[in-house]
Target: Long-chain-fatty-acid--CoA ligase
Amino acid sequence: MIAQYHPTFIIMIPTMYYSTLRASNFNPENFKAMDYIIQGGSQPLPSIQAAFKQYGINIINGYGLTEAPLVLVNTPENSKRKPMSIGKAVMFVDARILDDNGEEVPTGEIGELAIKAKNVTPGYWNKPAETAKAFHGRYLLTGDLAKMDDDGDIFIIDRKKELIITGGENVLPSEVENALAEHPLVDRCVVVGYDHPKYGESIAAAIILREDEPHYAEILDQHMRSRLAGYKVPRMYVPVTHMPLNSTQKPDKLAIRQMMNDKVSQTL
Model:
């Protein structure tokens, strides 16, 4: 369709870009002709950014929610310097990074992204409790962990509810996923926490391998231990032929977590 209709602008979620790269008829020239190629709807993936960059294609990150459509977006020039940034707040939008007490965190520290703007929903219909929980004053609490640099550029780190707490230590799934994706054996990966009787949660990775390798677990474990603290290293690496997706075509982390819990229960 791109070759037929020659669009000048496209916006897709990371899963769609991933599928596009692996399509048999993928032609990077079709993308080079576009003015704007935007990625949104989910956390930016470094592997996708890098894959398109090797073709000379620059993907721009944007950010929005159902409750607050397109409130941050990077610029073409800035995205070349900071490819993982979702940019700055657009006009008439106030974006802040807050701690659990609703106070702004220092520059460079991780907190929850909060948005105030005219296009932010006033609340959820007939759900006052949910509405109260979703707001801090007039700021919508997005549920996304983020940080802001000295220039005011914002970087999404992870979903707050997906934080893994193992043995009292906080682990960001995205940090583990990014380290895992650096290995050439890994085509795609999703990291989740699963129930553990001693640590509360432990870490597992669902992976799509680029090639058959009987010793993949040992190889990946060695790779991860050279990059991350021991408590952040997955205890399980589970190969899958396809990644479970939800209705919005994002990795279904609930299904993947259940898959890991089922696998553990089968070994007991």
User: Anything to note?
Assistant: The domain at 2-160 is CATH 3.40.50.12780 (Rossmann fold). DSSP finds nine helices and 15 strands in the chain.
